[in-house]
Amino acid sequence: MRGSYSTTREAQSTHGPKCGPEPTTARGESVRSLADADIAASFARGEDNSLHEVYVRWSPLVYTIARRGCGNDADAADVTQTVFVAAWQGRQGFDPGAGSLPSWLLGITRRKIADHWRQVGRTPRPSEELPDDPQHDAQVETTVERVLLADELERLGEPQRRILELCFFQDMTHSQVASLLGLPLGTVKSHIRRSLGRLRERLEVDGVPR
Amino acid sequence: MSRVESPSGKNYDEHYDEETIALLALGETVAGVQTGHLRSCGACQAQIDQLQAVVDSARAITDDDRPIAPPDALWQRITDEIESDGPVPGSRNSQNSGNSRNEHGKAAPPRSSGWMGGSGWSGKFALAAAVGVLVGSLGTIVAMDRENPPSMIAQAELQPLPGKNAQGVAQVRQTAEGATLVVDVPGLPQTDGYYEVWMLAPDAESMVSIGILGGGEVNEFPLPEGMDMNRFPVVDISVEQFDGDVTHSADSVVRGELTT
Questions:
Q1: pLDDT on residue B124
Q2: What ipTM, to 2 d.p.?
Q3: Separation of first and last alpha carbons in chain B
């Protein structure tokens, strides 16, 4: 087994209605994209409650990346706070035509994490190491990718998510997955193709530094 | 898939299909794969490399990479910091401030001003913040104080989705029987299908079907005990067809988030 990503949660749902055709996922996805676009548009217009919606939708991504980037919960909360305050104050700099709102937010997150480490450098704390800058930036980039992928995996729906997790973390082949889940080979292959495509697209849409 | 020129100048269609490429990116050995083609075909190799990079990142995911929500108190800290800097120039309320001052308490609420009437930007903001904390700490509607008389505990202004043209309001009211969702959307256009009421998670990915809108303008739906308004705060009305498909049609007409 690779990594330490838990797959136990899915262990009980090997069979059942969720393994059939999944109109829910296909249709749920379009509902979701619509919702994301709505939130971004209302944020771009500076509507009163839009920051709250943005916060509800994307603060877990920002916070988790900050947590990985800063190494502790308290600093991650501070960074997350500065990210959303800066996002609101600088919202006129967000152009919905130039990229997704999460990619813009994650751009701010990267800068705030870097600021955090610069500040730590000025106020030395013996318990924390100041990472070497370029190396640390690269670490943040791979963190952003992993957190986005973990988020998209959560959103795949079943059985797609379970199929990919078995491939990724249990090193199973598609035919082993098919026989474990009792699904036709062709179904598993096509889920793998579409799901990998979705993961790649998520990185392309939200993972590009802006 | 794109065609490429072979070294001999002849078009050939022997690229791997996308499923094979996906399996190769996962590191599987695929029967019948001609390694000769792979070596010579930059297009296929590039696709495999691209997906393989995604696979490599995904395989490095640990439990610490799974997105978790920040601490509950953080939203309050953010609104406090923003409010301490004063209203931000260019925000909608600063453009509207003349209006609300002149017509204070008198004019009919403009359609986009929200249910709080004349309250200012910071008031709305603080309220939005309070919702997160209040709803979050109470957890479920049924935990609300039942000694209070039947009353509105949350409201959503239902705004049209792009290309749609209806609006209305939804309220959660606490009655002796429990929480009830009251939906009032006058002027919904006629449809061959029917309108269904949903409560969505903020990301609109998970949802609970609340019921089918009847003919009258105001519809009431008793909410199931344990219904978590914090988890499903967005009221949504969709057009559904009589197609036997119980899932959301993705054709929403109006939508709005409940706030207390």
A1: 35
A2: 0.77
A3: 53
- Judged against a pLDDT cut of 90, whether residue A5 lies above it is answered with no
Give the domain CATH number at A60: 1.10.1740.10
- In b/e form, how buried is each residue of B141-167, taking b as 16+ CB within 10 angstroms? bbebeeeeeeeebbbbbbbebeebebb
Q: Is A97 part of any domain?
A: yes
Range of the domain at A116: 22-157
Structure tokens at A38: 């709505």
pTM to 2 decimal places = 0.55
Total domains present in chain A: 1
Cα–Cα distances (Å) from B131 to B7, B85, B135, in that order, read 66, 22, 6
Backbone angles phi, psi at B141, to 5 degrees: -60, -40
Selected for mutation to probe chain A from B29, B50, B61, B251 (highest A CB count within 10 Å) is: B61
pLDDT category of residue B57 using cuts at 50, 70 and 90 = very high
Residue A164 — very low, low, confident or very high, per pLDDT cuts 50/70/90?
Answer: very high
Is the pLDDT confidence value at A22 over 70? no
User: Does A128 fall in a domain?
Assistant: yes
B115 at the A interface (CB within 8 A)?
no
State the best of A43, A56, A189 to mutate against chain B, taking most chain B CBs within 10 Å.
A56
Residues contacting residue A174 through CB under 8 Å, at least 6 positions apart: A167, A185, A188, A189, A192, B23, B26, B28
pLDDT band at B214 (very low <50, low <70, confident <90, very high): confident
Using only the alpha carbons of chain B, give its radius of gyration. Answer: 27
- Mean pLDDT across B152-157: 84
The span from the CA of B21 to the CA of B45, in Å, is: 9
